[in-house]
Amino acid sequence: MVASQPMDRFYEACLSILERVRAQERQNIYRAADLVAKKLLKDELVHVFGTGGHSVMGAMELFWRAGGLAGLNPLFPPGIANLDGHPNTERVVGFAPHVLDYYRVKQGDLLILINVNGINAVTIDTALECRRRGVTVIAVTSREFAEGVAPNIPARHPSNKNLCDLADVVIDSHVPPGDAVVEIDGFDRRVSSVSTVINTYILQSLAAEVVDRIVKAGGTPEVFYSGNMAGAEAMNEPLFAKYYPRVKHL
Question: Which domains does the chain show, CATH number per domain?
Fold first, then answer.
């Protein structure tokens, strides 16, 4: 038998984790979908915050996408994404409450908090501040990763808390510590991070479950149509008109 190539090993690693998520996180995705659908049916925004240099892509994945929900309010403060992360803002203690203030996250709101390792300062401060404000948190994170990170290292929040222990609903991404999953013969560390693939599956699955719930409840899901297709402007304009005053990055 021919030995698998690196691209095959990455594919197999992705499939293995995806299957764990589908088998073990189904009920948590359902719980999260119930919460999101209820908010959208009441014409309330759902906030989305990816609190890491690459975890921010989770919020980007849900925002203003073809087939994506319109009633989402992403939090994109400066410095979180790697493209402008100088200094490393995700490690700044005390930053998160100001972010929540700016995006008007208040008591009774719902926030989807995405961070694969679930340990950094902005992640933990966000979870703690949401608890203080009475904001419900859906976390997309990896317990295995968080518990595999040593205490008191620079990447951790000073409390050494983990997001998976602070959220109201936890969707475990089952990403291994360190994120990279492919071993290369003759090289001493793993390559090819898997978290973006897994987060995308979780978040788009969540979106599909939300739309299904809204339809079954007799509502009309507010979903963007691809701007590359004929008629998109006419289909999307009512959504832009409605949410432009409410969603800061629209």
Answer: 24-223 (3.40.50.10490)
